[in-house]
Amino acid sequence: MNKTWCERINPVVRDMPPSGIRRFFDMVAETKGVISLGVGEPDFVTPWHIREACIYSLEKGYTMYTSNSGLLELRYAIARDLAETYGVTYDPKSEILVTVGVSQALDLALRALVCPGDEVLIPEPSYVSYAPTVTLAGGKVVSLPTGMEQGFCLRAHQVEAAITPRTKILLLCYPNNPTGAVLDRKTLLEIAEVVVAHDLIVISDEIYDKLTYVGQHTCVASLPGMKERTVLLNGFSKSYAMTGWRVGYACGHGDFIAAMTKIHQYTMLCAPITAQMAALEALKNGRAGMERMVREYNRRRHLVLHAFRDMGLPCFEPKGAFYAFPEIRVTGLTSEEFAEILLQEEKVAVVPGNAFGSSGEGFVRCSYAASLEDLGEALRRMAQLVRRRGVRPRVISTPSRHLPARDAGVSAAGGASSRIFHPGRN
């Protein structure tokens, strides 16, 4: 008997569960008037001077391939930015690879480093694609649960206790998606000691590094003894409001980058040249606009934190990224039940916490990269649901109706209209 079409699919892919966010994407798409706090995408449009650099490159006929490694001028700019910001130096010719977003950089790093059966340690809750990408690379995921009582911060003793002879990689993401947690330098130094002692490799996704509101971001590769064993991932999506441009990069030991480049040249060739030209402009002249956006996120961070606490939901203070992760157990609902009822009854979309791993159960992820109008209305509607579930509120915080004018060149795209879920990296 012939095999069915389903039976012919690679079992690794066939048996992989779909993203926990997917069902909510579909539900939101079918519901009108939804305010979305689910998508991890800035509501700002890319600053004009960055868009203009792209337009200018098209006018000048830049429509060809670049080097597989990316534009050399862009790699020099990335190296300069990392050296000036964190004091960590990379050779632009051999230690930096420009990729199609950080998601591709992560995939390349895992496929280049993971052998069948290798164990990859991942703090949890974690970004939804980490575990599946490890599985697709042939590795075994070992989750390291973190909770609100520890500030969702990974501790060195957790790493030490999880290490086996098959452990090869520790995958870090701080500031964290979905919790907004950051790791201070002391904690990272303690973790680095364990990493070095057990000869592990670190893949550090630092896409939210510029969005740190409390303390200063510590680049893992800048720690003593860590540069040569760290693959540093970063990009332009979050800090410069360039999610759709799909430009990221990986930095690391020349042998690691050469291995990743081999996969990249056979599967992707290069990131689009016009997007690379725009990224170059962002690094050259985008800091002031980026800092204005960060200040605006910080204002919204305070708003949502106090609003959740006022409505009676315990909420860890997010110190980075642009997500809040309130606990919703007091409502008597699971994460999925809360998100589904909130969507159906109040037309507000959030992401159930268990989409980020089992330790996220009892929480929901809310992005505050939305306009103040949308945030205020979404929080008002959420408070109504929480009150109907019998939770006693305190004073409900609401934003001012008189909003400041946007900074020139950094206009908001969301406004008072509903935002739309996108199924990409978020």
TrEMBL record:
EC number: 2.6.1.-
Domain (Aminotransferase class I/classII large) ranges: 33-381
Annotated keywords: Aminotransferase, Pyridoxal phosphate, Transferase
InterPro entries in the record: Aminotransferase_I/II_large, AspAT/PAT-like, NHTrfase_class1_PyrdxlP-BS, PyrdxlP-dep_Trfase, PyrdxlP-dep_Trfase_major, PyrdxlP-dep_Trfase_small
Enzyme class: transferase
UniProt feature, compositional bias: Low complexity: 408-418
CC cofactor: pyridoxal 5'-phosphate
Region ranges (Disordered): 399-426
Record carries keyword Transferase: yes
GO molecular function terms attached to this record: transaminase activity
UniProt xrefs under CDD domains: AAT_like (cd00609)
Keyword Transferase tagged: yes
UniProt similarity note: Belongs to the class-I pyridoxal-phosphate-dependent aminotransferase family.
Official protein name in the record: Aminotransferase
Protein's organism: Desulfofundulus luciae
